[in-house]
Amino acid sequence: MTDSLPIPLTAPLTSAQQRKLINLVRRAAKAEILPRFRRHGATDMRAKANRFDLVTEADTGAEAMLTRGILQMFPHALVVGEEAVDADTSLRGKINEAELAFLVDPLDGTWNFVNGLPLFGVIIAITRFGKPVLGLLYDPIMDDWIIADEANPARLCRNLGAEKRLQVSRGGDLSEMTGFIHLHLMEKDVQREVATTFPDFGRVKTLQCSCHEYRTLARGGVDFCLSGMMTPWDHAAGVLICQQAGGHVAMLDGSDYDAGRTEGYLLAAPDEASWARLRDRFDFLLKTGDAT
User: Of the residues 46, 159, 219, 255, which has the maximum number of CB atoms within 10 A of its CB?
Assistant: First the structure.
């Protein structure tokens, strides 16, 4: 039996529906991702935009399984997978029109996966007319996940039922903050100026995996994340999860995030005051013409 009725706009997924979705993600990871980790060959992958932007059989196999399973549970849903968009870019334009959309990154951190680093994950976001209403960040290696919806806080969960409610960091002065800045995913003409800000912070890094970056942010391990590539499957789930862990997330120009955004800079921080200090430091990005 499938959950064939549309989800009411006033409620997130039921607990039973969330369990079905989580079990689907866990099955896809066990069937399509983990058996290929550190066992794939050169013929199992190809480059997309450049040699750093990779897709493997694990990506395509997991996305196909996840898409089938989601549509079995929710036949009326729009499913927007990263690899599906690579084949049909028009899918992105449908997100803000959809009452119920599932945004799927079947293997986030593919470069790490290909290079044998156990830092990759599966991201699922549910949106209503572009607004994130549920986020799921799954770690196949540890078989645990962070989940939040618009009615419940972010929590770290394991299969045995243990849950831990998450809280972002306390923020602070710029000189004490650590964070993620996706420098090489920004336009070339702003990379140099963004790089000059690095000494202003305690530490700046990237994990090359949005799933684990947002997990780290929601758990208070870092203080902020600045992104300039608005791929919705990378951000929609993490935005909601960080908000439900007490954080403040908005576009750098102060507008609300929605999954239909294709341009701009997204800034996540532990609180509004820290966000404002970060925004003031990065406000030169609003003058480049790239954040319109």
Answer: 219
User: What torsion do the CA atoms of 169, 158, 79, 94 make, to the nearest 10 degrees?
Assistant: -20
Task: Please state which CATH number belongs to domain 174-287.
Answer: 3.40.190.80
Q: What is the pLDDT of residues 156-171, one digit of tens each?
A: 999 777 899 999 999 9
Q: Which class in CATH covers the domain with range 15-165?
A: alpha beta
CA distance 109 to 209: 4
Taking a C-beta distance cutoff of 8 angstroms, is the pair 166, 245 a contact? yes
Task: Assign 9 a pLDDT band (cuts: 50, 70, 90).
Answer: very low
With 0-12 / 13-18 / 19 or more C-beta atoms within 10 angstroms meaning exposed / middle / buried, residue 91 is: middle
pLDDT (tens digit per residue) in 206-223: 999 999 999 999 999 999
d(CA 15, CA 217): 25
Q: What's the predicted TM-score (pTM) here? A: 0.92
Mean pLDDT value across residues 64-74: 97
Is the CB of residue 102 less than 8 Å from the CB of residue 126? yes
Residue closest to 232 by CA, chosen among 118, 97, 131: 131
> Can you give the residue ranges of every domain in the chain?
15-165, 174-287
* DSSP-derived pairing of the beta strands 45-47 and 54-56: antiparallel
**30-35: long-range contacts at Cβ-Cβ below 8 A with a sequence spacing of 24 or more?**
30/140, 31/61, 31/65, 32/57, 32/58, 32/61, 32/62, 32/65, 32/106, 33/58, 33/61, 33/62, 33/106, 33/107, 33/113, 33/120, 33/122, 33/140, 34/140
